[in-house]
Amino acid sequence: MTEARTTAYAALVMRLSLGVMFVAHALLKLAVFTLPGTAQFFQSIGLPGPLAYAVFAAELVGGLLLIAGVGTRWVAIALLPVLLGATWAHAGNGWVFSAPNGGWEYPAFWTLTLVVQALLGAGAFAPGPARSALVPQRA
Question: Residue 116: which of 103, 132, 127 has the closest Cα?
């Protein structure tokens, strides 16, 4: 049975966690690997280099939108291709993400959390009426 009093807060925690992780990964691409370096990595695994810039933008903007609780369901769905691509990129590296070049289980798990977020909605403390059907309503 769903605990209606806390589900909205669980969705909030997941939304904020996902948002922070996306922003962190975008900033990692920008500040550590650099965008040209990320583009070179994309090319080295057979993807177009300019796709790295689109992924950076999607992670940064999508992460900020998740944190703000704006369009959460749609943002989660829109970010699925980024995580499916990351899962594909790490598929040949094995199961454990601590393996050389990172394994596939972390991006696969992150993909599933996006699906859960899309199903749950934004949860508590999100703007607008479409925040979530699970937000407790006062009588």
Answer: 132
